[in-house]
């Protein structure tokens, strides 16, 4: 017959069971660190100075891991100051270099190789890479990064997604013309316009690339369509729009938010008023009327799910 377990044996079993989650968390963390290190190794072979994927981690999973997704023609350096601010709060922070960006010795013409499929692929891969960094994952994306963030919100389950001026539809163009113009831009020979390079920022590809923009907007429109018909897997979504922004269409971001809300997600929309005269790229606000510290504080509040204490006002969706 089996001997009755002693109290000491029960305590030993309980101790082992209690250690298992911590061991599993540490194993997942180690796997995430290794995956990101492989991405950084690729960056080291092809990326310009300052364009390497950023990882700020303290050796163990944190309660919250935050992924920051940069905009078109930019690099992880765009979010560097914000990443260090979030890390100082006790978060593990990951800022990946996005496809075709920050390449050594290249210019804006290289972005013609960017595709919507690459953007979907990087959305999935960075979520997988970040899973082990924290108990929950928060994704923050600006412009192109916001479009990738919208894909993550729709297709993947993370704790929260914050979209900053997501590129869903282009500004200044009537919505009825979006699809034919995007299709035309995708079929014409690549049109790129270089701007004067900035020797202090070799990580950027200054200028304009029509084909890359078409691919981003094609992804944005596909997400808008998906959100109209089915619920998002992420249930906590924050959208920040900018009334002064003429690069992307504020109404399209609000339509996307409305679709998510209709399917039961918790969606908060905030607007930066036109009086601030902020550019599309609000991470570099020195051209507007808002200092960097104030803007970063606002973005930190949104990442943490708090109501903005300054600058932005709520938008009530109908």
Content-based structural category: alpha/beta
Whole-number mean pLDDT: 88
CATH architecture descriptor: 3-Layer(aba) Sandwich
Q: What's the name of the CATH homologous superfamily? A: Alpha/Beta hydrolase fold, catalytic domain
Strand order of the largest sheet: 1-3-2-4-5-8-9-10
Shape: globular
Order of helices and strands: HEEHEHEHEHEEHEHEHE
Question: Could you describe the 3D structure shown?
Answer:
- By secondary structure, the chain is of the alpha/beta class.
- It has one domain: Alpha/Beta hydrolase fold, catalytic domain (Rossmann fold, 3-Layer(aba) Sandwich).
- The protein has helices at residues 7-46, 80-88, 116-130, 144-155, 175-187, 210-229, 250-262, 292-303, and strands at residues 54-56, 62-69, 92-95, 134-142, 160-164, 192-194, 207-209, 236-242, 266-272, 313-315.
- Mean pLDDT is 88; it is low at 13-20.
Question: What characteristics describe this protein?
Answer:
alpha/beta, 318 residues, 16% strand, Rossmann fold, 8 helices
């Amino acid at each position: 017959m089996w001997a009755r377990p002693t109290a000491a044996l029960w305590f030993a079993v309980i101790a082992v069971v209690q250690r298992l989650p911590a061991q599993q968390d540490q194993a997942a963390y180690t796997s995430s660190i290794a995956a990101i290190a492989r991405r950084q190794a690729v960056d080291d072979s092809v990326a310009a100075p300052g364009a390497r994927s950023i990882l700020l981690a303290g050796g163990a999973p944190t309660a919250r891991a935050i992924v920051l997704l940069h905009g078109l023609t930019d690099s992880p350096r765009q979010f560097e100051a914000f990443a260090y601010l979030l890390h100082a709060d006790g978060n593990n922070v990951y800022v990946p270099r996005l496809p075709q960006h920050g390449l050594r010795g290249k210019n804006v013409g290289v972005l013609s190789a960017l595709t919507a499929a690459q953007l979907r692929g990087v959305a999935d891969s960075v979520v997988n890479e970040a899973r082990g960094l924290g108990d929950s994952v928060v994704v923050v994306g600006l412009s192109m990064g916001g479009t990738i963030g919208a894909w993550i919100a729709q297709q993947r389950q993370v704790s929260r997604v914050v979209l900053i001026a997501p590129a869903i539809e282009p500004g200044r163009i009537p919505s009825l013309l979006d699809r034919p113009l995007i299709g035309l831009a995708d079929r014409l020979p690549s049109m790129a316009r270089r701007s004067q390079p900035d020797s202090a920022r070799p990580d950027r590809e200054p200028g304009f690339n029509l084909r890359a923009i078409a691919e981003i907007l094609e992804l944005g429109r596909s997400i808008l369509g998906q959100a109209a018909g089915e619920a998002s897997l992420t249930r906590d979504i924050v959208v920040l729009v900018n009334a002064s922004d003429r690069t992307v269409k504020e109404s399209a971001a609000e339509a996307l938010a409305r679709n998510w809300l209709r399917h039961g997600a918790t969606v908060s929309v905030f607007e930066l008023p036109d009086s601030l005269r902020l550019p599309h790229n609000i991470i570099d606000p020195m051209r507007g009327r808002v200092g960097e510290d104030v803007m970063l504080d606002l973005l930190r509040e949104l990442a943490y799910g708090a109501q903005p204490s300054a600058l932005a006002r709520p938008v009530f969706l109908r």
